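To assess whether ligand presence alters the predicted conformation, the chain was also submitted together with adenosine-5'-triphosphate. Input:
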Amino acid sequence: SKFVVGLTGGIGSGKTTVANLFAAEGVALVDADIVAREVVAPGSKGLEAIVTHFGAEILTPEGELDRAKLRQRIFSHPEEREWLNQRLHPMIRQEMLAQVEKATSAYVIMVVPLLFENGLDSLVNRTLVVDISPELQVNRTVKRDNVDASQVNNIISSQCSRSEKLARADDIIDNQGEISTLKREVLALHQRYLQLSGTDNA
Ligand code: ATP
């Protein structure tokens, strides 16, 4: 089966930016956020299970999952959150692995914001952490999303710490500099991953 690199990093660290640089080299991406939406899309088994459990009032008038309402429902009910995770997490894992197997590139980048937090590092051959300081995380996220620094700080504290991510990383990409520097780092890692995936016949 395929060589898979799990790409992670805290909020605003640059995962999407890095993933797009790998994609530009022809590497297939599997994105956990996208898959998490796919498994509850209209017509999916995931959405059917949610409607059976929570009732049709969990849907928007358009028949889509009302995420705000669902968040509200599980916020004060840990057992409901648990129920949801126990159903959705296996579906998400299965769909991510299915997308990996369908990919035709030499190796695959799996983009997973909460790779370590959700134990998804067990699905990958190698982990790559995009690293920046918490100060830069706040600056870049505030600029991108037009949110309060305090909101970003709350999310940072809810995620696995910078030091733990770095300790668990097989590879680290420093994204505190210019995009041009980042690009060079990605190209070097790409060569390394081609070798590791055993398809570099040079
Ligand atoms: P999230 O998990 O919050 O979705 P992310 O890890 O995917 O974030 P990006 O969206 O790639 O992070 O980057 C965060 C912001 O920082 C974006 O606006 C991006 O354009 C910008 N950015 C990324 N890398 C750099 C860099 N080296 N220099 C300046 N800005 C950067």
